[in-house]
Structures are given as C-alpha cells and as structure tokens.
Amino acid sequence: MGANSKGSLAERRSGVRVSVMATRDDDHPPDGPCSGTLTFILLVFILGTFAGLASAQCSQDLPTSASLIAARVAVANGDPDVALSPGGCMRYQRSFNLLFPRVPVLTKEEVKLGGQTVVAWDHVALPTAWPGPARSFSTGRLDADQDGFDEWRARIDREVTSPAVIGSLIAPRRERSTISISEYDPAAQVLATRRTYIFPDDGTMQVTLEEGAGTLSVVSQYSASSIIEAGHTSWPDPLEIINIQLVNPVPCPSSLTTEVMSRLVDAAANGGSCLRSSAMYAEAASLAHTVASREFRVVCENMNPNRKAGIQYDAAIDPQRPIVIYIDLADWNVATPKGRESILFHEMLHTLGWDHIVGFKTPPVPDTAWREMDRVSACNSLCYNPSPTRCECAQCRGSNNCGTCATYLPCASDKLGAYCPCQGHERWFESATECRETCSSNLACHATQCVNQPANACKP
User: Fold this and answer.
1) Coil, strand or helix at 46
2) Is the pLDDT of residue 13 over 50?
3) Which residue has the higher pLDDT, 4 or 259?
C-alpha cells in the first residue's frame, strides 16, 4: 500500500478509538485502568481480521464468463453500478449528466477492485456550433499495482464531422482523433514513455514514440495501418504483417457475431485471470470492463494471407466507440474453440493501448524472438501457449527483474538481437554487434541503422 493508504488506515484506527472512549457509560466504569486500551486493541484486531478476510475473498473473486454475461445485460439495461465478478468485489460504476430531458450523457466510468479504483475514464463533450465538427475528449488512467499511483494515463481528443451536402456532392462523415498514452515507471513514479497516435480517418495512423526518465525525447516516428492484426495465436505460427486493405470481404455467417461475443467473454475471464496471476490487476479489470460495456462489430474476410484477425486500433482504445473486429473465416473455421479464444484475447489486449513493434518484419524475425519483444504477443503466449518462455513472461509483465518469470522455459536466445531494415536486405541477427557490422557493410545499406531488440529482464 502507498503512504496515503497507510495514513488513511491510521486515521480510521484513530477514529475507532475515539468512538470507543466517547460511548463509554461513565456510570459503569471499566474493570481496570487498561480496559479502554484493551477494547481498542480488540476492535482493531477484529477489524483487521475482517479486512484481511475481505481482501482474501476479493483475491479469489474473479470475473467468470457467466458473471461478465450478466454484467453485460445489466449495463445494457442502464444499471449504473454493476458487479463484474460473482461476489461483486470487482465492480463497474458510471455516472451520467442529462444533456436534454431524458437524454443521459456518460461522463465517468470506473472499475473498482475491493473498493479501490483501478480503471477510470472521464468524458467531456465540448460546445459545438452546428454545422461545425463535434469535439470531445476523454482522459483515462490505470493503477496496475493498486498503490494509488496511476502508471498508465491516456487522453483522447475527437473531432467528428457529420455528413453534409455541398453543392451536388455529399461530404462523408469523418471521425478524426488524437490519442496520447503515457506510461510511468511504477517504482520511481516518473514519466517513462509516451506514444501519440494521430488518426486522420483514412485508414492510417501517424505514431510518435518518446522515451526517457521524466524528460522525454523522440525515438521513433512512423506511419502504419490503423488496423492491427493478430498473427500470434497458435504455436508455432509465422509472424504476420499489417495490411491496411480488406482481402476478399464476405458476409459474416449469421451465428458468427454471437460466437465471437461468447469467445470474447471467455477471453476476458480466462485471460484476465492469467493477467491477475501476474499482478496485472488493472489490465485484467480493463478487459472485464471492455466486454461488459462496449459495443462490438464484426467484419468478415476470407483467405486473407496477412492476418487471422484484426482490430480497428483507434476504436479499440476509445471507450466511447464501437470496437470493430476483423475475422478471417478461413482461419477461424479450422481453429479450435480455445484457439478462437486466443485469437480474440490477442485482439482484446490492443484495447489496453498496446500496439505492435513496427519495423520488424518477416522474414527474417523468428516467431519466438518476436514474441519476446512484442508485449501483446508475449502476453498472448504467457496466457495461452502451453510452453511460454521466461522472456515472454518478463515482456508481458513489463518487469524490471526476472523474478518468478525464471520458472518458465529458457528464452529463445540469451543475446539481445537486432534487425537490419535495409530494403531488399532485411535480416534478423542474434547479436546487435553482428547486425551493425554486417548490415552497413552492404553498399546499398551503408547508411542503415539496425533496430535493436529492447532489453529484457530475463536476459543476462
């Protein structure tokens, strides 16, 4: 617990003692001079015991598929306070303002675990003069380790232009957004990374990555598709690339949306339990919140060589937009029920604001090495791969030390590798030194810099 929590506990204990002394009947003095102190100690012991029991019960009160389905129904019915877990230790609470009579506008969302907020979103609609664009923003925060300090913070700025008739043309509805995600070092409580995404509503996103310790510097800028794919859903599985275009779009089977929703609920329950076992409480709570409160839309493809599934990244992060999931029927139809759950767990992890490393392609990055670098793929492997590695564990948890991750299988390599991105000469190297020496030795690549594999707590 943080210092503030300890202080509040001391205040509560002090309050108990004052209450005991104030309610003593002076006509019946205590049996001895220590009676008031003993009563206070006894009460503190009882309260502490009950608090411990409640905490222990909450640690076992995990969301299940059934509890999340019930929560989804309750949310749809307008309940502002919904139990996400069977015993109600994890709860989703929301507040509304009435913009017009009988038109409630969502202003605040919270997920509480044992009464403590671990996920929170605040929503603000800005004044709009029609026919100008409607502007709004949301701020979100996650307290992953429940210490009272929010390690993950986000801001989403939106601009929506409604369809309009201009001359003989119809201007389409446009939805542009900018999303900024800041992550803090939980130990030092200083800003460590910031990712800024600009979505111009053309199927792309412009990304800026900043890193540092309190003061940040830009380390990478790039453009990518706003559809992020799932390519690591079975093992072994070839790495897949991002493809902005739909391939062979087809109508979805009538029963598919129902099954996808069922698998999403299972992924939030089972995958969320896995994350909680790694002390990723806020992440697990966020997945439960997502399946209980968000609208899902399914788009189908057939024989897309680039992905088993995908998700619209800007909509995935934004809690006020429907989540759009792309399913490739050729892969879906041959996947086992657990494989389908794994596919959708991978997609759900993107709702946490986790994207993929851009710049590493296949060939030549081995799938095991990729999963040890990419947090979404690492968590997917940790929770659904029967034989995850310790480096996948550390990458998923964002650990600064190997710790209990050492109980898993050895890493794919003890070395930190690197990737030569020179066009036509792309290659993965087991050693960053070898990459620097070999990549630039080619005349066509003399100015190319290798992209180094991020450090991992379970590597020497």
Assistant:
1) helix
2) no
3) 259
pLDDT band of residue 24 (cuts 50, 70, 90) is very low
* pLDDT tens-place string over residues 157-192: 999 876 655 555 555 567 899 999 999 998 899 999
Question: CA 432, CA 180: separation in Å to the nearest integer?
Answer: 31
Which tokens belong to 201?
């509503």
Structural domain for 225, as ranges: 65-293
- Whether 43 contacts 21, CB under 8 Å: no
419 in any annotated domain? no
Flag whether 112 is in a domain.
Answer: yes
- d(CA 14, CA 22) in angstroms, rounded, equals 12
Greater model confidence, 418 or 79: 79
Q: Is 7 domain-assigned?
A: no
- Cβ(179)–Cβ(121) below 8 Å: no
Instruction: Give the burial class of 239: count Cβ atoms within 10 A of its Cβ; 0-12 exposed, 13-18 middle, 19 or more buried.
Output: buried
In a domain, 280, yes or no: yes
Half-sphere exposure of 108 (CA within 13 A, CB side): 7
Report the range of poorest mean pLDDT among 216-220, 242-246, 323-327, 377-381.
242-246
CA separation (Å) from 266 to 125, 263, 446? 34, 5, 50
Q: Which residues contact 104 (CB under 8 A, 6 or more apart)?
A: 96, 97, 98
- 289 within 8 A of 109, measured Cβ to Cβ: yes
Q: Name the domain count of the chain.
A: 1
For residue 268, the model assigns a pLDDT of 98
Between residues 445 and 198, which one has the greater pLDDT? 198
Distance CA 381, CA 397 (A): 12
Specify whether the CB–CB gap between 391 and 245 falls below 8 A.
Answer: no
